[in-house]
Write a structure and sequence with these properties.
By secondary structure, the chain is an all-alpha fold. It contains 3 helices and no strands. The chain has one domain: Orthogonal Bundle (434 Repressor (Amino-terminal Domain)), CATH 1.10.260.
Length: about 55
């Protein structure tokens, strides 16, 4: 059974590759470290979402 983290990671990777972006480009656009983006895509990292004010 897939975890929510792994399903989210697969979706992030799918959307990133659909855009033709590298992990580095996505990280830059999102203000994240590239290794964190890789961890998200592999389902290894927890993701915390906030709403900008």
């Amino acid at each position: 059974m897939q975890t929510i983290r792994s399903r989210l990671g697969e979706r992030v990777r799918h959307l990133r590759t659909h855009l033709g972006w590298s992990q580095e480009k996505l990280a830059e656009k999102a203000g994240l470290h590239p290794t964190y983006v890789g961890g998200i895509e592999r389902g290894e990292r927890n993701v915390f979402l906030t709403r900008e004010k």
